[in-house]
Here is the input.
Amino acid sequence: MKILLATDGSDYSKAAIEELARMPFPKGTKVLIISAFENTPLITSAPAPMGGLAGGYEETSEIVKNLSENVLNKAAELLKKKNLDLSISTAAINGSPKHVILEEAEKLGADLIVVGSHGRGTIGRFLLGSVSQAVATHAQCSVLIVRKKENKKSSSSSSHCINRKLVKLHKQ
Here is the structure.
């Protein structure tokens, strides 16, 4: 089995990692963990504290890539600790998360894509877009969307429940 796990280091991605780690898979199941990052002119032209511009495009690109690689290393560590039967590899990829996830899943020949969801409402999805919704709509394989949200019965921010939605798309 081949699984693509997408992470951005958020609590929502961590919930997806933890859910995947709890699931039983045959020994040798391949998991590719990816983190997509985008360089934008807004990031590369940020003012430096003493005036001028803070580094060039290449420098900023390297910083963002290093941050993504740190996220990937933490995700791989967590997954390895909880499920020793998985064969894990990682990749930090420059590009739009929606497109990167779908392209990498196709290259891998993924049987399953696992993503976290912020659980935004209709307006939030319209304004910010929904990576998980785009992936579920366009993927050529099954998609597991894991949502981490606060438990409404408790006001404690540490109390959470995990909802998961497995979406099976049938392309004809």
Q: What stands out?
A: The first strand starts at residue 2 and ends at 6. Residues 101 and 107 are 10 Å apart (CA to CA). The beta strands are 2-6, 29-37, 86-94, 112-117, 142-150, 160-167. The mean pLDDT is 78.
